[in-house]
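User: My advisor, Dr. K., asked me to get a structural model of this assembly before our group meeting. I'm new to this, so sorry if the format is off. These are the inputs:
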Amino acid sequence: MSLRYPLIRQTSLQLFAFYCCSVSSMTISAQSLQDGIYTAIQAERGAEEYAARCASCHSTDLRGNSNSPSLIGLSFMFIWEGKTLGELFHKMSTEMPTESPGSLSMQSYASILAFILRSNDFPAGDTDLAASADALASIPISSN
Amino acid sequence: MKIKTFSILTAMLCIFTSQSYSQILDFDAVTDAMLQNPPDEEWLSWRGTPKSWGYSGLDQINTDNVGNLQLVWSWAIDDTGSGQAAPLVHNGVMFIPGPRGVIQALDAANGDLIWEYRPGITPSIDGTDLEISAEKLGDAALPTTAYAGVGRGVQKNIALYGEMIYSATENASIRALDARTGLLVWESQTADPGLGYFYTAGPIVANGVLVTGITGCERYKEDVCFYTGHDPLTGEELWRFATVAAPGTPGGDTWGDLPLRFRAGGDSWQAGSYDPDLNLVYMGTSQAKPWARAVRGTDGDALYTNSTIALDPNTGDMSWYYQHLPGETHDMDETFESVLVDIDGRESIFKMGKLAILWQLDRRSGEIIKATDVGYQTIVNVNPVNGNVTYRDGMIPRIGQQIDMCPSTSGFKSWRAMAYSPQTQAMYIPITLNCELATFGPTEQVLGGGGVGPVRRINYPHHDAEENLGELLVLDIPSGEVKWRYRQRAPINSAALTTAGGLVIVGDWNRYYYALDAETGEKLWQTRTTTSAQGFPISYMIDGRQYIAMPAGVGGASWSGMLPRDLAPELSRPRNGNSINVFALPTD
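Assistant: The format is fine. Below is the predicted structure of the whole assembly, which you can bring to the meeting.
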């Protein structure tokens, strides 16, 4: 009998831990583009990287050209709404720049993505955008 | 060939580099007559002659001995953008256009550098004190770590005329260099690059006039795409032809009620051809923008998009136009090369766009002679006699509604130019086989907006291709019947070159170049280059030895990026490797 109580306690602790993890993961999954998921400084770094590595195709105003899609406004959201920030980060970090895919650091891709979010009027916050597709996989791209 | 070496050290050069320059002493001025009938030993126009056959009359390298080809020299071209070089050869010198406006002159027999022109470090204009400021350089002044990408920075072809070399730049300028020294002689900006304008195709020379078409015309703005004629000596703009019909002008009603600011497209991103007997230049235009009718707000024909246009090079007056795809609505360009071939005495033009329909037009009148659909596309029905095109049921896109179409928006055919062989009377056409589930989306109809319009895109292999993406399609001319096909997994990625040695030279995305028997398609030789075969192979002869130059390059837009990545993911290529690779038979 003396063993049952500790077992119950252990189970309760496990349930509590599961609950905490669930709440934690729910918190992450509930994260949205409106929550300030990048910093202004990061977006500023991204603006410089964008000018050097992206603008010659996607244009300085992010509206793209015949071969490079717009990264701003209606056209951007038409392509990406309903997908996740992780998918966008994965595409950037594996396919861009088209002349030299994957040639930037993960931090650079994250900064450029922060700049794209700022350019689409999503708010800045206190924490840098994570530099990994996995970490961004649960953040939906939505204009709401 | 005589060259003289001297050093230029200026304050500007001290900042960046100290560099040694040479100049070409024996340089024969290039005349109109030479351009029209170049000796077989030379390659004076981007496709060999103004007829754009991509054919060399040399036969030292032929079907019997091509298996002995050896590398003679190679040269790395800058990796600051996509390599799509169309080299020229004159007086034993090869002139190579590289990304971002760089032009280099090399000894074509051994690859020694003679001079190079680099925007930003070229110190002065032919002995004057005039320097080029960073402000004038625009994007070219970006750090060398910047990548020009699929848009700006591409430099396909250059032109030789007189004692100068002419190019068209990523900053919407026409440039003239002294062919002996590589020093800038004049520069004439034709449009504001800040509005999106840039060049990827260079000028051609027609009856003493530089004729050039501009691209980057997808944004909504108060002006439209155009061709220009320039005085080669002074850079003065002699005329300008708008490729989009304005309201109130002939053809202006084909855009519905759209004001000029919302009429976009009609770009030119492949150089033209020239018939000196008719004194007509033949240029192509791309589709209207945004790509889909529903997005651009009119189902009108949208003149003069997706057309072949015949112009008087001296006045810019249009002699005729032929619109291949009126009111085009899937991004199916028809802007590519015009191949001029006489058939039974009738002057003809052969063209092919993304749909892989071979068009034969009368180049005197623009009348359609024949339209041959090779049967790969699923979008339109085309009348082979009168060329009329109608869209198949359900194939006109609506916003947000997915359609299943072949080809994808990348097209079966692209700027990888086809070549004609008078020996076999056949056209050799680089093709990529592909299809797409496409969903076209909206754009903002505001000044500065527009663009091509977004497309949710899922690429898939063509139904009839058995996982092959690459094809060299060979069509008998003028019947349009398939003579033979060469198919393989990797996309065919270079322009084609035919030779009097009975060969066709072409390369693929997987770094191979091939020599095939032009009659049978038998593969006779292959080699592997630094990165994807890309650009325009050429042939020339120096001191009795024939050479074949094969360019390789990165980039190249969705044909070379998205399609192989999505549909042949097991293939890979290096991130860098723009280069020229020159082959010849052993001398022993």
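One thing worth pointing out at the meeting: Residues 40-132+150-584 of chain B form a domain with the Methanol Dehydrogenase; Chain A fold (CATH 2.140.10.10).

User: Perfect, thanks a lot.
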